[in-house]
Structures are given as structure tokens and as C-alpha cells.
Amino acid sequence: MRYGWPGGHECAVALSFDVDAESAFVFRFPEKAGRSLAGMEERRFGVRTGVPRILRLLDTYGLRGTFYVPGYTIVHHTAAVRSIRDAVHELGAHGNVHESLDTLSDKEEVQVLEDQLQIWRSSLDMRPTGYRSPSWELNTGSPAILKRYGFAYDSSLMGDDVPYLLDTPAGPLVEVPVQWLLDDAPMYRYAPGSGNGIADPDRVIRMWMQEFDGMRSENGCFVLTMHPWISGRAGRLLGLEQLIRHMRAAPGVWFATVGEIAEWAASSGATGTLTRDPAAGRS
Ligand SMILES: [Zn+2]
């Protein structure tokens, strides 16, 4: 077996949702966001309608999802974020106003991180241990900063398809990798005038099923990234349900949160094989 998963499972599956709401629009186009009710409402659909629908779907199948939330979403849509927390899904950090880290200096990066931790504290009384960078941009110094601020893992890089470790002066940070193929935005996202069409959902679900089948045979870590304002549309969630049924029908699949996958990687090392029984150290 290429990578050892707990309980002898063949592969891991995590359903993750980046609850950006209007944050990326506000960060990238602040002036337009200030006057475009249309652009803001398109994105508010995600927290208003998409999130409750996604929570219902996960509940139907007894699955726990992982939701990454910018500070902006926590401040402006507190009730939606609390509904995710109260349904016992995992919450992780996702920037403050969806700042793409490649646009920030080290100092600014630290400030943005401190600002979001303050929002987590005051609005949710929580401190996140999982991180996904906005737009999947990470600087070379970012893993060390995350480690310094107590994060257990990052989930923004594409360097493997099983969890791996990023070296930092403060010790390794677990990376639970993502990939563009398993992101709903390049598939479904429609921006008028961009030339991007809306993908046929049957094609998208077929691609995701095929990637899942491949990852299962390769003992991989299937991390699907969705955005409630994009994937929360009714028909697309029917497609996600089809995918969930396909994955549940396959033997040996470990459905987990990204945090649980990271915990397994931290305790079992790079190969996923426990080098020592964790219980053996306790007396
Ligand atoms: Zn995002």
C-alpha cells in the first residue's frame, strides 16, 4: 500500500467548503464591491441559501464537512458560521478579507493572521487549528508563520496527493493537499464577459468520480473544494449527492474532515504508517 490510512482504509475523502461570501470580491475589487449590489448578492447567496442546503445534505449522509471561513464572513454572516459550528463540522481559517498572500509582505501577512484570530476569538470564542489560504496562494515563509501561531495544518498546496510535511524552523507543518481538478470554481464559475462557460454538471461529476476512483486505487487523499455561492445551487448539489453515493458504495473509504486527516498524518508520519503505537507511550 502506498499510503497507510487508519483502519486499513484504501483512501481518504474530505468534503471542504470555502465560505468566502463577498470577501474575495471586496478584496479584489473594493470600488466595484462598494456599488455593485448584483455582485454582492450573487455571493451572499452562498451564506444565505447555499450553506443551509449543504448542511442538510451532509446531515442526510451523516458526513462531517470542513468549512474554511474568512474573518469577513464571520463578522458579516455570524449566524451562518455559527450554524456550521453548531452542526459540529470543522471550521478553519481562510484569511481576513480573502487577502491573496502573494500580495502581502511578511509583516502584513502576520498582521492579517492576527486580525483574523482576534475575530475568531471575539465572534466564535474559538482558535482555529486548520488553515486554507485564500486563492491557494502561499509564500515560502507562510508555513513557519502558521506553525508559530499554533496551526496544525495547511490545506492549500498541490505537491502530492497524500498528506505531507512542510519543514519549518518550528517543526513540520502538515499539508493536506488540494488540486484544481477538485475545485468547483474552474468548473462552474461563470463571469459575464469572461468567455468562461458553465460546465455540464454530468461532465464535472464524471471527472470527480474518475478522480476519486483513481485516488482510491492510489491510496490518495481526495479533498474536494467547493464554494457555497457556486456549488450551493440546487442542481449542483444533486450532482454532489450522486458523487457522495458513488464514493459511499466503494469499499474502504475513510470519510473524514481535513483536520482528522492532518491529525492522522501528524501521528503517523510521511507514509501514513504508525511507527509506534501511540498507546504504547502512555502509562
Ligand atoms: Zn476562498
UniProtKB/TrEMBL annotation:
One of its GO terms (molecular function) is hydrolase activity, acting on carbon-nitrogen (but not peptide) bonds. It comes from the Bacteria. GO terms for biological process: carbohydrate metabolic process. SUPFAM superfamilies: Glycoside hydrolase/deacetylase (SSF88713). CDD domains: CE4_HpPgdA_like. Residues 35-256 form the NodB homology domain. Transmembrane segments: none annotated. InterPro entries: Glyco_hydro/deAcase_b/a-brl (IPR011330), NODB_dom (IPR002509), PgdA-like (IPR037950). This is Polysaccharide deacetylase.
